[in-house]
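Re: duplicated header lines in exported C-alpha coordinates

Our pipeline writes sequence and C-alpha coordinates for each protein into one text file. With two proteins the header for the second block appears twice in some exports. Here is an export where it did not happen, for reference. First protein block:
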Amino acid sequence: MADTTDPAAATRLIDRIASEVGPPDVLVNTIGAFRPGDALTTPETLQLMIDVNLGTALWLSQAVAPHMQQQGTGVIVHVTARPGIEPSGGMAAYSTSKAALVYLARIVDIELRRTGSG
Protein backbone atom coordinates (compact mmCIF):
# COMPACT_ATOMS: atom_id res chain seq x y z
CA MET A 1 0.00 0.00 0.00
CA ALA A 2 1.28 3.47 -0.86
CA ASP A 3 0.18 7.08 -0.91
CA THR A 4 0.35 7.60 -4.66
CA THR A 5 -0.27 11.32 -4.25
CA ASP A 6 3.34 11.37 -3.03
CA PRO A 7 5.70 11.35 -6.03
CA ALA A 8 8.40 9.48 -4.09
CA ALA A 9 5.92 6.79 -2.98
CA ALA A 10 4.75 6.26 -6.56
CA THR A 11 8.35 5.82 -7.69
CA ARG A 12 9.12 3.40 -4.85
CA LEU A 13 6.02 1.37 -5.69
CA ILE A 14 6.80 1.10 -9.41
CA ASP A 15 10.49 0.39 -8.77
CA ARG A 16 9.54 -2.34 -6.30
CA ILE A 17 7.23 -3.94 -8.85
CA ALA A 18 9.99 -3.74 -11.46
CA SER A 19 12.53 -5.39 -9.18
CA GLU A 20 10.20 -8.15 -7.92
CA VAL A 21 8.22 -8.96 -11.07
CA GLY A 22 10.08 -7.27 -13.90
CA PRO A 23 9.77 -4.00 -15.76
CA PRO A 24 6.13 -3.02 -16.29
CA ASP A 25 4.73 -3.18 -19.82
CA VAL A 26 1.41 -1.62 -18.87
CA LEU A 27 0.15 0.89 -16.34
CA VAL A 28 -3.61 1.11 -15.83
CA ASN A 29 -4.40 3.88 -13.39
CA THR A 30 -7.88 3.66 -11.89
CA ILE A 31 -7.08 5.70 -8.79
CA GLY A 32 -9.53 8.52 -8.26
CA ALA A 33 -11.72 10.40 -5.84
CA PHE A 34 -15.07 12.17 -6.11
CA ARG A 35 -16.46 15.04 -4.10
CA PRO A 36 -19.55 16.84 -5.34
CA GLY A 37 -19.59 20.60 -5.28
CA ASP A 38 -20.49 23.52 -7.48
CA ALA A 39 -18.17 26.24 -8.77
CA LEU A 40 -18.14 27.74 -5.26
CA THR A 41 -16.16 24.71 -4.06
CA THR A 42 -13.69 24.99 -1.22
CA PRO A 43 -9.94 25.21 -1.77
CA GLU A 44 -9.60 21.93 0.15
CA THR A 45 -11.95 20.09 -2.20
CA LEU A 46 -10.20 21.45 -5.27
CA GLN A 47 -6.78 20.51 -3.89
CA LEU A 48 -7.94 16.98 -3.03
CA MET A 49 -9.40 16.42 -6.50
CA ILE A 50 -6.24 17.71 -8.19
CA ASP A 51 -3.92 15.72 -5.90
CA VAL A 52 -5.76 12.41 -6.29
CA ASN A 53 -7.21 12.59 -9.81
CA LEU A 54 -4.37 14.41 -11.57
CA GLY A 55 -1.28 14.27 -9.40
CA THR A 56 -1.40 10.51 -8.95
CA ALA A 57 -1.57 10.01 -12.73
CA LEU A 58 1.43 12.25 -13.30
CA TRP A 59 3.53 10.64 -10.56
CA LEU A 60 2.72 7.11 -11.74
CA SER A 61 3.45 8.06 -15.36
CA GLN A 62 6.78 9.55 -14.35
CA ALA A 63 7.63 6.47 -12.29
CA VAL A 64 6.79 3.93 -15.00
CA ALA A 65 8.14 5.86 -18.01
CA PRO A 66 11.85 5.08 -17.46
CA HIS A 67 11.12 1.36 -17.32
CA MET A 68 9.08 1.53 -20.51
CA GLN A 69 11.66 3.71 -22.24
CA GLN A 70 14.39 1.23 -21.33
CA GLN A 71 12.33 -1.58 -22.89
CA GLY A 72 11.34 0.56 -25.86
CA THR A 73 7.66 -0.25 -25.38
CA GLY A 74 4.77 0.18 -23.01
CA VAL A 75 1.21 1.34 -22.59
CA ILE A 76 -0.16 3.82 -20.07
CA VAL A 77 -3.91 4.06 -19.52
CA HIS A 78 -5.50 6.59 -17.17
CA VAL A 79 -9.18 5.98 -16.49
CA THR A 80 -11.19 9.18 -16.33
CA ALA A 81 -14.91 9.95 -16.26
CA ARG A 82 -17.51 11.55 -18.48
CA PRO A 83 -17.50 14.84 -16.49
CA GLY A 84 -13.91 15.26 -17.67
CA ILE A 85 -15.08 15.65 -21.26
CA GLU A 86 -18.68 16.79 -20.80
CA PRO A 87 -19.06 19.39 -18.04
CA SER A 88 -22.08 19.19 -15.77
CA GLY A 89 -23.19 21.17 -12.76
CA GLY A 90 -22.45 20.21 -9.20
CA MET A 91 -19.02 18.75 -9.90
CA ALA A 92 -16.71 21.73 -10.48
CA ALA A 93 -13.53 20.47 -8.80
CA TYR A 94 -14.06 16.86 -9.85
CA SER A 95 -14.81 17.74 -13.48
CA THR A 96 -11.86 20.11 -13.65
CA SER A 97 -9.47 17.48 -12.29
CA LYS A 98 -10.78 14.84 -14.71
CA ALA A 99 -10.55 17.25 -17.67
CA ALA A 100 -6.95 17.94 -16.69
CA LEU A 101 -6.37 14.16 -16.53
CA VAL A 102 -7.67 13.77 -20.10
CA TYR A 103 -5.26 16.45 -21.26
CA LEU A 104 -2.36 15.01 -19.24
CA ALA A 105 -2.89 11.59 -20.82
CA ARG A 106 -2.69 13.17 -24.26
CA ILE A 107 0.50 15.06 -23.36
CA VAL A 108 2.16 11.95 -21.88
CA ASP A 109 1.26 10.06 -25.05
CA ILE A 110 2.82 12.72 -27.27
CA GLU A 111 5.97 12.97 -25.18
CA LEU A 112 6.57 9.26 -24.64
CA ARG A 113 5.56 8.18 -28.12
CA ARG A 114 8.68 9.97 -29.37
CA THR A 115 10.78 7.57 -27.29
CA GLY A 116 8.95 4.42 -28.36
CA SER A 117 6.88 4.00 -25.18
CA GLY A 118 3.56 5.42 -24.09
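Second protein block, exported in the same file:
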Amino acid sequence: MTAYRLPVDMPESMRVPEAQARADRRLRRQRDLLRPLGVAVIAAVVVSAVNGHPGAGVHGRPLAVTVALAVFSASVLLAIRDPFVRQRVAAQAVTIAAMGAAGVALVALQPRNATELAGGAAVWMAVARLPLPFGPALALAVTVGLGLAEGLSGGSTAAILATTLLCALLAVVAHFIQEARASQTITERLLAQLEDAREEQLKAAAVNERGRVAGELHDVLAHSLSGAAIQLQGARKLAEREDASPEMRAAVDRAGELVRDGLADARRAVGALRGDALASVAELETLVASFRHDTAADVTLIVEGDERELPPDVSLALYRGAQEALTNVARYAPGAATRVVLRYDRDRTTLMVEDVAAGEIEGDGLRGVGGGRGLAGMRERLERAGGSAHAGPTETGWRVQLEVPA
Protein backbone atom coordinates (compact mmCIF):
# COMPACT_ATOMS: atom_id res chain seq x y z
CA MET A 1 0.00 0.00 0.00
CA THR A 2 1.25 3.53 -0.77
CA ALA A 3 2.82 5.18 2.25
CA TYR A 4 1.14 8.54 2.90
CA ARG A 5 2.91 10.95 5.22
CA LEU A 6 1.82 14.22 6.73
CA PRO A 7 3.93 17.30 6.05
CA VAL A 8 6.88 17.46 8.40
CA ASP A 9 5.94 20.93 9.67
CA MET A 10 2.58 19.71 10.99
CA PRO A 11 3.01 18.55 14.61
CA GLU A 12 1.60 15.31 15.91
CA SER A 13 -1.15 15.54 18.53
CA MET A 14 -3.32 13.35 20.68
CA ARG A 15 -6.04 13.37 18.04
CA VAL A 16 -3.73 12.15 15.28
CA PRO A 17 -2.96 8.76 16.89
CA GLU A 18 -6.67 8.39 17.64
CA ALA A 19 -7.49 9.02 13.97
CA GLN A 20 -4.87 6.48 12.92
CA ALA A 21 -6.30 3.95 15.38
CA ARG A 22 -9.77 4.43 13.87
CA ALA A 23 -8.31 3.87 10.41
CA ASP A 24 -6.62 0.68 11.58
CA ARG A 25 -9.86 -0.61 13.08
CA ARG A 26 -11.73 0.20 9.88
CA LEU A 27 -9.11 -1.65 7.82
CA ARG A 28 -9.40 -4.71 10.07
CA ARG A 29 -13.19 -4.70 9.63
CA GLN A 30 -12.81 -4.53 5.87
CA ARG A 31 -10.37 -7.42 5.88
CA ASP A 32 -12.71 -9.44 8.05
CA LEU A 33 -15.47 -8.86 5.51
CA LEU A 34 -13.23 -9.87 2.58
CA ARG A 35 -11.77 -12.96 4.26
CA PRO A 36 -14.73 -15.21 3.31
CA LEU A 37 -14.23 -14.06 -0.30
CA GLY A 38 -10.67 -15.38 -0.20
CA VAL A 39 -11.91 -18.74 1.02
CA ALA A 40 -14.51 -18.74 -1.76
CA VAL A 41 -11.78 -18.09 -4.36
CA ILE A 42 -9.79 -21.05 -3.04
CA ALA A 43 -12.88 -23.26 -3.22
CA ALA A 44 -13.71 -22.13 -6.78
CA VAL A 45 -10.17 -22.75 -8.05
CA VAL A 46 -9.94 -26.16 -6.35
CA VAL A 47 -13.31 -27.31 -7.70
CA SER A 48 -12.42 -26.08 -11.20
CA ALA A 49 -9.00 -27.75 -11.15
CA VAL A 50 -10.26 -31.07 -9.75
CA ASN A 51 -12.97 -31.25 -12.39
CA GLY A 52 -10.65 -30.11 -15.20
CA HIS A 53 -8.35 -32.09 -17.46
CA PRO A 54 -5.97 -33.28 -16.32
CA GLY A 55 -7.37 -33.39 -12.81
CA ALA A 56 -5.40 -33.52 -9.58
CA GLY A 57 -3.40 -36.66 -8.91
CA VAL A 58 -0.10 -38.06 -7.68
CA HIS A 59 1.70 -38.80 -10.95
CA GLY A 60 2.80 -36.74 -13.94
CA ARG A 61 0.74 -33.67 -14.87
CA PRO A 62 -1.97 -34.44 -12.29
CA LEU A 63 0.77 -34.26 -9.62
CA ALA A 64 1.79 -30.84 -10.94
CA VAL A 65 -1.84 -29.75 -10.71
CA THR A 66 -1.97 -30.99 -7.11
CA VAL A 67 1.23 -29.11 -6.17
CA ALA A 68 0.00 -25.91 -7.85
CA LEU A 69 -3.32 -26.14 -6.00
CA ALA A 70 -1.54 -26.70 -2.68
CA VAL A 71 0.79 -23.73 -3.22
CA PHE A 72 -2.08 -21.48 -4.29
CA SER A 73 -4.33 -22.48 -1.37
CA ALA A 74 -1.54 -22.11 1.20
CA SER A 75 -0.46 -18.70 -0.09
CA VAL A 76 -4.03 -17.34 -0.13
CA LEU A 77 -4.66 -18.63 3.40
CA LEU A 78 -1.49 -16.89 4.54
CA ALA A 79 -2.40 -13.66 2.75
CA ILE A 80 -5.88 -13.34 4.26
CA ARG A 81 -4.70 -13.77 7.86
CA ASP A 82 -4.27 -10.65 10.05
CA PRO A 83 -0.54 -11.18 10.80
CA PHE A 84 0.22 -11.06 7.06
CA VAL A 85 -0.03 -7.25 6.87
CA ARG A 86 2.49 -6.88 9.72
CA GLN A 87 5.17 -8.88 7.92
CA ARG A 88 7.98 -7.27 5.98
CA VAL A 89 7.33 -6.25 2.38
CA ALA A 90 9.76 -8.90 1.10
CA ALA A 91 7.88 -11.69 2.91
CA GLN A 92 4.54 -10.46 1.56
CA ALA A 93 5.97 -10.21 -1.96
CA VAL A 94 7.27 -13.79 -1.81
CA THR A 95 3.86 -15.10 -0.69
CA ILE A 96 1.98 -13.21 -3.42
CA ALA A 97 4.59 -14.25 -6.02
CA ALA A 98 4.05 -17.89 -5.04
CA MET A 99 0.31 -17.35 -5.43
CA GLY A 100 0.84 -15.87 -8.91
CA ALA A 101 3.26 -18.63 -9.97
CA ALA A 102 0.73 -21.26 -8.91
CA GLY A 103 -1.96 -19.48 -10.95
CA VAL A 104 0.27 -19.37 -14.02
CA ALA A 105 1.07 -23.07 -13.61
CA LEU A 106 -2.61 -23.96 -13.34
CA VAL A 107 -3.39 -22.05 -16.54
CA ALA A 108 -0.53 -23.80 -18.33
CA LEU A 109 -1.64 -27.22 -17.05
CA GLN A 110 -5.38 -26.67 -17.64
CA PRO A 111 -5.67 -24.07 -20.44
CA ARG A 112 -9.38 -24.47 -21.04
CA ASN A 113 -10.50 -24.15 -17.46
CA ALA A 114 -11.43 -21.33 -15.02
CA THR A 115 -8.04 -21.39 -13.33
CA GLU A 116 -7.32 -17.81 -14.51
CA LEU A 117 -9.08 -16.84 -11.30
CA ALA A 118 -6.02 -17.97 -9.35
CA GLY A 119 -3.74 -15.58 -11.25
CA GLY A 120 -6.32 -12.80 -10.93
CA ALA A 121 -6.30 -13.22 -7.14
CA ALA A 122 -2.52 -12.77 -7.14
CA VAL A 123 -2.82 -9.59 -9.23
CA TRP A 124 -5.40 -8.20 -6.78
CA MET A 125 -3.26 -8.99 -3.74
CA ALA A 126 -0.13 -7.51 -5.32
CA VAL A 127 -1.76 -4.14 -6.03
CA ALA A 128 -3.79 -4.01 -2.80
CA ARG A 129 -1.06 -5.07 -0.37
CA LEU A 130 2.35 -4.14 -1.79
CA PRO A 131 3.72 -0.58 -2.04
CA LEU A 132 5.02 1.07 -5.17
CA PRO A 133 6.75 -0.08 -7.30
CA PHE A 134 6.66 -3.69 -6.08
CA GLY A 135 2.90 -4.19 -6.30
CA PRO A 136 2.32 -3.04 -9.91
CA ALA A 137 5.52 -4.75 -11.09
CA LEU A 138 4.49 -8.09 -9.60
CA ALA A 139 0.94 -7.70 -10.94
CA LEU A 140 2.32 -7.00 -14.43
CA ALA A 141 4.61 -10.04 -14.23
CA VAL A 142 1.71 -12.32 -13.24
CA THR A 143 -0.49 -10.88 -16.02
CA VAL A 144 2.25 -11.46 -18.62
CA GLY A 145 2.82 -14.96 -17.27
CA LEU A 146 -0.87 -15.80 -17.55
CA GLY A 147 -0.99 -14.52 -21.12
CA LEU A 148 2.09 -16.53 -22.14
CA ALA A 149 0.76 -19.67 -20.43
CA GLU A 150 -2.57 -19.25 -22.19
CA GLY A 151 -0.87 -18.74 -25.57
CA LEU A 152 1.70 -21.53 -25.25
CA SER A 153 -0.98 -24.01 -24.23
CA GLY A 154 -2.99 -23.32 -27.37
CA GLY A 155 -5.39 -20.71 -26.11
CA SER A 156 -7.08 -18.40 -28.57
CA THR A 157 -6.36 -14.71 -28.96
CA ALA A 158 -9.75 -13.94 -27.44
CA ALA A 159 -8.93 -16.06 -24.39
CA ILE A 160 -5.58 -14.29 -23.96
CA LEU A 161 -7.24 -10.86 -24.22
CA ALA A 162 -9.95 -11.91 -21.78
CA THR A 163 -7.34 -13.03 -19.23
CA THR A 164 -5.35 -9.82 -19.68
CA LEU A 165 -8.45 -7.64 -19.33
CA LEU A 166 -9.54 -9.54 -16.23
CA CYS A 167 -6.17 -8.93 -14.59
CA ALA A 168 -6.17 -5.26 -15.63
CA LEU A 169 -9.68 -4.78 -14.23
CA LEU A 170 -8.77 -6.42 -10.93
CA ALA A 171 -5.62 -4.30 -10.67
CA VAL A 172 -7.51 -1.05 -11.33
CA VAL A 173 -10.24 -1.85 -8.80
CA ALA A 174 -7.69 -2.85 -6.17
CA HIS A 175 -5.74 0.35 -6.80
CA PHE A 176 -8.80 2.58 -6.41
CA ILE A 177 -9.87 0.79 -3.23
CA GLN A 178 -6.38 1.14 -1.79
CA GLU A 179 -6.24 4.83 -2.77
CA ALA A 180 -9.67 5.53 -1.29
CA ARG A 181 -8.70 3.82 1.95
CA ALA A 182 -5.44 5.77 2.22
CA SER A 183 -7.17 9.05 1.33
CA GLN A 184 -9.77 8.53 4.04
CA THR A 185 -7.03 7.88 6.58
CA ILE A 186 -5.04 10.97 5.64
CA THR A 187 -8.21 13.07 5.66
CA GLU A 188 -9.05 11.97 9.19
CA ARG A 189 -5.54 12.77 10.35
CA LEU A 190 -5.62 16.21 8.73
CA LEU A 191 -9.01 16.92 10.31
CA ALA A 192 -7.56 15.95 13.68
CA GLN A 193 -4.69 18.36 13.17
CA LEU A 194 -7.09 21.07 12.04
CA GLU A 195 -9.05 20.64 15.28
CA ASP A 196 -5.84 20.97 17.28
CA ALA A 197 -4.90 24.06 15.30
CA ARG A 198 -8.28 25.60 16.15
CA GLU A 199 -7.75 24.87 19.82
CA GLU A 200 -4.31 26.46 19.72
CA GLN A 201 -5.80 29.48 18.00
CA LEU A 202 -8.46 29.81 20.70
CA LYS A 203 -5.82 29.46 23.41
CA ALA A 204 -3.68 32.11 21.77
CA ALA A 205 -6.68 34.45 21.56
CA ALA A 206 -7.47 33.81 25.24
CA VAL A 207 -3.85 34.50 26.22
CA ASN A 208 -3.87 37.75 24.23
CA GLU A 209 -7.12 38.83 25.87
CA ARG A 210 -5.80 37.97 29.33
CA GLY A 211 -2.68 39.94 28.53
CA ARG A 212 -4.78 42.95 27.55
CA VAL A 213 -6.89 42.73 30.73
CA ALA A 214 -3.76 42.21 32.80
CA GLY A 215 -2.21 45.33 31.31
CA GLU A 216 -5.31 47.37 32.14
CA LEU A 217 -5.44 46.04 35.71
CA HIS A 218 -1.76 46.68 36.20
CA ASP A 219 -2.01 50.25 35.01
CA VAL A 220 -5.06 51.02 37.14
CA LEU A 221 -4.09 49.17 40.33
CA ALA A 222 -0.43 50.10 40.21
CA HIS A 223 -1.31 53.76 39.85
CA SER A 224 -4.01 53.73 42.55
CA LEU A 225 -2.18 51.63 45.13
CA SER A 226 1.13 53.35 44.55
CA GLY A 227 -0.61 56.68 45.12
CA ALA A 228 -2.20 55.34 48.31
CA ALA A 229 1.20 54.14 49.54
CA ILE A 230 2.72 57.59 48.96
CA GLN A 231 -0.17 59.25 50.76
CA LEU A 232 0.26 56.92 53.73
CA GLN A 233 3.96 57.72 53.90
CA GLY A 234 3.01 61.36 54.05
CA ALA A 235 0.41 60.61 56.73
CA ARG A 236 3.03 58.82 58.81
CA LYS A 237 5.41 61.78 58.66
CA LEU A 238 2.55 64.11 59.50
CA ALA A 239 1.60 61.93 62.47
CA GLU A 240 5.18 62.11 63.74
CA ARG A 241 5.24 65.92 63.41
CA GLU A 242 1.85 66.26 65.10
CA ASP A 243 3.03 63.92 67.87
CA ALA A 244 0.15 61.55 67.23
CA SER A 245 -0.53 58.66 69.59
CA PRO A 246 1.43 55.40 69.13
CA GLU A 247 -1.78 53.64 68.22
CA MET A 248 -2.43 56.12 65.42
CA ARG A 249 1.09 55.75 64.02
CA ALA A 250 0.86 51.97 64.27
CA ALA A 251 -2.42 52.01 62.37
CA VAL A 252 -0.90 54.20 59.66
CA ASP A 253 2.12 51.91 59.45
CA ARG A 254 -0.05 48.83 59.18
CA ALA A 255 -2.24 50.50 56.56
CA GLY A 256 0.91 51.17 54.53
CA GLU A 257 1.93 47.54 54.86
CA LEU A 258 -1.50 46.40 53.71
CA VAL A 259 -1.34 48.70 50.70
CA ARG A 260 2.10 47.34 49.80
CA ASP A 261 0.84 43.79 50.26
CA GLY A 262 -2.20 44.59 48.17
CA LEU A 263 0.02 45.97 45.43
CA ALA A 264 2.12 42.79 45.53
CA ASP A 265 -1.04 40.65 45.41
CA ALA A 266 -2.37 42.69 42.51
CA ARG A 267 0.86 42.15 40.63
CA ARG A 268 0.65 38.42 41.31
CA ALA A 269 -2.94 38.41 40.03
CA VAL A 270 -1.85 40.25 36.92
CA GLY A 271 0.97 37.73 36.50
CA ALA A 272 -1.55 34.90 36.77
CA LEU A 273 -3.61 36.47 33.98
CA ARG A 274 -0.47 36.62 31.88
CA GLY A 275 0.24 32.96 32.52
CA ASP A 276 2.82 33.27 35.30
CA ALA A 277 3.04 30.60 37.98
CA LEU A 278 0.21 30.79 40.54
CA ALA A 279 0.73 30.93 44.28
CA SER A 280 0.42 27.51 45.92
CA VAL A 281 0.62 25.73 49.26
CA ALA A 282 4.32 25.26 48.55
CA GLU A 283 4.67 28.94 49.49
CA LEU A 284 2.92 28.62 52.86
CA GLU A 285 6.23 28.56 54.70
CA THR A 286 7.21 31.87 53.11
CA LEU A 287 3.76 33.32 53.91
CA VAL A 288 4.00 32.28 57.56
CA ALA A 289 7.54 33.60 57.89
CA SER A 290 6.48 36.95 56.39
CA PHE A 291 3.50 37.15 58.76
CA ARG A 292 5.72 36.35 61.74
CA HIS A 293 8.20 39.04 60.71
CA ASP A 294 5.54 41.71 60.08
CA THR A 295 3.46 41.15 63.21
CA ALA A 296 6.00 39.68 65.65
CA ALA A 297 3.35 37.07 66.41
CA ASP A 298 3.94 33.49 67.50
CA VAL A 299 2.78 31.65 64.36
CA THR A 300 3.85 28.13 63.40
CA LEU A 301 3.31 25.96 60.32
CA ILE A 302 2.66 22.23 60.74
CA VAL A 303 2.44 19.82 57.78
CA GLU A 304 0.90 16.41 58.40
CA GLY A 305 0.67 13.42 56.07
CA ASP A 306 2.44 12.68 52.82
CA GLU A 307 2.82 15.81 50.75
CA ARG A 308 1.57 15.63 47.17
CA GLU A 309 1.04 17.99 44.29
CA LEU A 310 -2.41 19.55 44.15
CA PRO A 311 -4.25 20.96 41.13
CA PRO A 312 -3.27 24.60 40.54
CA ASP A 313 -6.72 26.05 41.32
CA VAL A 314 -7.03 23.99 44.51
CA SER A 315 -3.54 24.89 45.69
CA LEU A 316 -4.17 28.58 44.98
CA ALA A 317 -7.48 28.48 46.88
CA LEU A 318 -5.79 27.00 49.96
CA TYR A 319 -2.98 29.55 49.82
CA ARG A 320 -5.39 32.48 49.48
CA GLY A 321 -7.48 31.06 52.33
CA ALA A 322 -4.46 30.91 54.62
CA GLN A 323 -3.52 34.44 53.56
CA GLU A 324 -6.98 35.77 54.41
CA ALA A 325 -7.12 33.89 57.72
CA LEU A 326 -3.74 35.31 58.83
CA THR A 327 -4.85 38.79 57.79
CA ASN A 328 -7.92 38.38 60.00
CA VAL A 329 -5.71 37.37 62.92
CA ALA A 330 -3.75 40.59 62.45
CA ARG A 331 -6.99 42.57 62.29
CA TYR A 332 -8.96 41.09 65.13
CA ALA A 333 -6.48 39.25 67.39
CA PRO A 334 -3.08 40.96 67.09
CA GLY A 335 -0.40 39.15 69.04
CA ALA A 336 -2.38 35.91 69.36
CA ALA A 337 -0.44 32.67 69.02
CA THR A 338 -1.48 31.05 65.76
CA ARG A 339 -1.16 27.58 64.25
CA VAL A 340 -1.34 26.86 60.54
CA VAL A 341 -1.89 23.12 59.96
CA LEU A 342 -1.78 21.61 56.49
CA ARG A 343 -2.94 17.98 56.58
CA TYR A 344 -2.87 15.54 53.65
CA ASP A 345 -5.43 12.78 54.12
CA ARG A 346 -6.08 9.93 51.71
CA ASP A 347 -9.05 11.55 49.98
CA ARG A 348 -8.82 15.20 51.00
CA THR A 349 -6.49 18.01 51.98
CA THR A 350 -7.29 20.24 54.95
CA LEU A 351 -5.84 23.60 55.95
CA MET A 352 -6.58 24.97 59.42
CA VAL A 353 -5.62 28.39 60.80
CA GLU A 354 -6.38 28.73 64.51
CA ASP A 355 -5.44 31.55 66.88
CA VAL A 356 -5.26 31.26 70.66
CA ALA A 357 -5.60 34.57 72.44
CA ALA A 358 -3.76 34.88 75.75
CA GLY A 359 -6.17 36.89 77.86
CA GLU A 360 -7.95 39.98 76.61
CA ILE A 361 -6.83 41.45 73.31
CA GLU A 362 -5.53 44.97 73.77
CA GLY A 363 -6.97 47.52 71.37
CA ASP A 364 -8.99 46.85 68.26
CA GLY A 365 -6.14 45.67 66.09
CA LEU A 366 -7.05 46.44 62.50
CA ARG A 367 -10.76 45.94 62.74
CA GLY A 368 -11.49 48.92 60.54
CA VAL A 369 -9.18 47.84 57.75
CA GLY A 370 -10.63 45.87 54.84
CA GLY A 371 -14.01 45.56 53.22
CA GLY A 372 -15.46 42.75 55.32
CA ARG A 373 -15.75 40.42 52.33
CA GLY A 374 -12.69 38.31 53.08
CA LEU A 375 -14.40 35.21 54.49
CA ALA A 376 -17.14 35.28 51.87
CA GLY A 377 -14.61 35.59 49.06
CA MET A 378 -12.53 32.81 50.56
CA ARG A 379 -15.57 30.52 50.76
CA GLU A 380 -16.55 31.28 47.16
CA ARG A 381 -13.04 30.53 45.95
CA LEU A 382 -13.00 27.18 47.80
CA GLU A 383 -16.42 26.23 46.43
CA ARG A 384 -15.27 26.94 42.87
CA ALA A 385 -12.37 24.56 43.50
CA GLY A 386 -14.79 21.89 44.78
CA GLY A 387 -14.03 22.39 48.47
CA SER A 388 -15.59 24.08 51.49
CA ALA A 389 -14.66 26.65 54.13
CA HIS A 390 -15.76 26.84 57.76
CA ALA A 391 -14.96 29.60 60.23
CA GLY A 392 -16.08 30.16 63.79
CA PRO A 393 -15.06 30.80 67.38
CA THR A 394 -13.40 28.27 69.66
CA GLU A 395 -13.04 28.28 73.45
CA THR A 396 -9.78 30.17 73.20
CA GLY A 397 -9.94 32.05 69.90
CA TRP A 398 -10.99 31.61 66.30
CA ARG A 399 -10.58 28.83 63.75
CA VAL A 400 -10.74 28.78 59.97
CA GLN A 401 -10.81 25.36 58.31
CA LEU A 402 -10.58 24.73 54.58
CA GLU A 403 -11.15 21.35 52.91
CA VAL A 404 -10.69 20.24 49.32
CA PRO A 405 -11.25 16.75 47.87
CA ALA A 406 -7.72 16.19 46.61
